[in-house]
């Protein structure tokens, strides 16, 4: 049961049995005020006490009972000086009361606020849903990207046929695309002198690694300088116009008096772009 000082509103928690049936005069350990406390006066006031200490009302004692209490011999309560954060109460000539904490300006100890706990749980659940929703679509995105990359690698020849600019991209990652199906092997160059004239010789092999016969187009040779620019180009017919699956055919071409700044030579098949460039 809570007993409240009517002067400074300091609250003390006591057992009703310590007051006795008739009540006793008690003294506040904080302000040294005295008042008469009885079970009849405390029970109605305690039932009306809210959780906040400031709203505690002083127990009102009827005048007639107060007069009787002043004249009747009653045991008084001696309250020792409280510590910085708590106060203890004892009664003379009676068993000691239970020590309690009576913090000035602080409400009595209560359990957690149910509404605050529920609101906190709702916020936590909302954060967890947002966090899970943020990452739930990531596996799907990864699968879509992996499928797209696999499709591009599988059908890269078709892609290069419609978008020739992508050929350099596949070649940069080590997956060159050969639309013709033919390949050049063992290409090498050499310099020869005939009757005092310098001759550049280019030779190698043309191979058909596919499972179908392929037509061998005209060959194109281009000499480049140190800056990578073509300084001279010429064409030549292959020795074999058709190659069966798995067959190989040699080629050989010569250029008299090659450019003095020749650095390297490029060998490839003649295509439509070369026809357009020759016409311009």
Report on this model:
- With 280 residues, the chain is of the alpha+beta class.
- It has three domains: 2-91, no CATH class; 112-179, no CATH class; 183-279, Immunoglobulin-like (Sandwich).
- 29% of the residues lie in helices and 26% in strands.
- The protein contains seven helices and 14 strands.
- The strands form six sheets. Strands 7-8-13 form a three-stranded antiparallel beta sheet, with no helix packed on it. Strands 11-10-14 form a three-stranded antiparallel beta sheet, with no helix packed on it. It has a two-stranded antiparallel ribbon with strand order 1-2.
- A hairpin with a 5-residue loop joins strand 10 and strand 11.
- The longest helix is centred in the middle third of the chain and has 23 residues, at 114-136.
- The termini are far apart.
- The model is unreliable at 45-111 (pLDDT under 50).
Describe the structure using short key phrases.
3-stranded antiparallel β-sheet; alpha+beta; 280 residues; 14 strands; single chain; Immunoglobulin-like
Q: What is the H-and-E element order?
A: EEEEHHEEHHHHEEEEEEEEH
**Taking all residues together, what is the mean pLDDT?**
74
Number of strands: 14
CATH secondary-structure class of the largest domain: Mainly Beta
- What's the CATH superfamily of the largest domain, by name? Immunoglobulins
In CATH, the topology of the largest domain is named Immunoglobulin-like
Helix coverage percent: 25-40%
Q: What would CATH call the architecture of the largest domain? A: Sandwich
Strand order of the largest sheet: 7-8-13
**Largest beta-sheet characterization:** 3 strands, antiparallel
Distance between the termini: 110 Å
Dominant shape: rod-shaped
Strand residues, percent: 25-35%
């Amino acid at each position: 049961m809570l007993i409240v000082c009517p002067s400074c509103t300091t609250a003390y928690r006591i057992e009703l049995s310590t007051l006795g049936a008739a009540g006793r005069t008690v003294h506040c350990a904080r302000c040294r005020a005295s008042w008469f406390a009885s079970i009849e006066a405390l029970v109605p006031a305690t039932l009306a006490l809210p959780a906040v200490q400031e709203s505690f009302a002083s127990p009102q004692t009827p005048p007639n009972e107060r007069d009787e209490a002043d004249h009747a011999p009653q045991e008084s309560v001696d309250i020792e000086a409280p510590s910085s954060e708590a106060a203890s109460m004892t009664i003379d000539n009676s068993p000691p009361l239970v020590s309690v904490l009576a913090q000035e300006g602080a409400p009595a100890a209560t359990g957690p606020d149910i509404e605050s706990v529920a609101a906190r749980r709702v916020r936590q659940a909302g954060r967890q849903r947002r966090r899970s929703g943020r990452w739930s679509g990531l596996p799907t995105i990864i699968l879509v990207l992996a499928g797209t990359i696999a499709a591009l690698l599988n059908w890269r020849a078709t892609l290069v046929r419609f978008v020739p600019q992508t050929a350099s991209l596949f070649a940069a990652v080590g997956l060159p695309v050969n639309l013709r199906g033919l390949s050049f092997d063992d290409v090498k160059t050499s310099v020869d002198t005939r009757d005092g004239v310098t001759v550049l010789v280019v030779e190698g092999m043309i191979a058909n690694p596919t499972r179908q016969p392929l037509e061998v187009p005209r060959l194109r040779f281009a000499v480049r300088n140190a800056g990578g620019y073509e300084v001279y180009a010429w064409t030549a017919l292959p020795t074999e116009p058709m190659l069966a699956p798995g067959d190989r055919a040699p080629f050989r071409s010569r250029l008299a008096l090659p450019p003095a700044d020749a650095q390297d030579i490029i060998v490839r098949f003649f295509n439509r772009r070369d026809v357009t460039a020759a016409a311009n």
